[in-house]
């Protein structure tokens, strides 16, 4: 914060507004500034009023970063350590906070905007802001030295598949396979690590679904933004301070099945909802979602772990998985931080009856290259209008 607008002045403005019961409009913030007894010129008042209003109701010093359309993540690890990701890895910015208390105040204010509590008794929060931005914050002493703040920006418009090809996420010609995957109505999962672009790719693919189809989304935090005329969005809800009102993803999936979905989409499969999703995909519904995994080959084991924790035995889970899911698309971030599709796998049973994934396509700078599962994928895509990706 500038020397004109210090922490003491900010506290004074906040107190003045609270006592007056007035909304922090630009005019009232300017009025509160003058009430502090400081003689400021008109230009200084306007600049300070804008800065103070940002501190009081906006994202403070982070607002310019969040407004940058190229930024996907804003991470604060200390007052002088603010990082952003623009798709090419983390970059340290020149943005700073006055002190650790300023970071804490911002985190608590954003949590309050999201309707959540953040204090010493509940030192972390995971929530969604009204504009869709995903908020995570941890207070000291759980976070050593300073409040840690993580903001995942959700853009109002999904990327198109053409834009993902241009960005290098999809190799040249790979978009034809992905379009065919949607047209053939195959159920699929997108796997990858945190920040690898799973939600971005899934949103783009759902935008290719026919306009006559009804898509029902079930998410922990509403991040999917498919460009589609018929989308129903369901979001889970945490329990209130009395421990009541919890609505989990498994609840949402059960309700979604009663809403006549043509495609059922789970934003991230990470719990008991896997049982209901697999059951749905085995009863005539098409579906998709994302899952955290180190590699496409790890997806069956990941789903097995989730299913077992939910009470589904190993044999039953693999039987349902074999019938429910056809394709896994795996995303990675390379050493330069760029997101790309590393592999496309098909699912098959091994001699023991367990489901394994087989590489059908692998990333190539000029196009996908074929793997041992290519003929199987090609057979699954028969009937869809597409061209050879290689």
TrEMBL record:
GO terms for molecular function: ATP binding; ATP hydrolysis activity. The keyword ATP-binding applies. It holds the Pfam family T2SSE. Keywords: ATP-binding, Conjugation, Cytoplasm, Nucleotide-binding, Transport. Its main location: cytoplasm. It is found in: Cytoplasm. It comes from the Bacteria. The keyword Endoplasmic reticulum does not apply. InterPro entries: P-loop_NTPase (IPR027417), T2SS/T4SS_dom (IPR001482), T4SS_GSP_E_ATPase (IPR050921), TadA-like_ATPase (IPR022399). Residues 57-338 form the Bacterial type II secretion system protein E domain. GO terms for cellular component: cytoplasm. Belongs to the GSP E family. This is Pilus assembly protein CpaF. It comes from Streptomyces alfalfae. The lineage of its organism: Bacteria, Bacillati, Actinomycetota, Actinomycetes, Kitasatosporales.
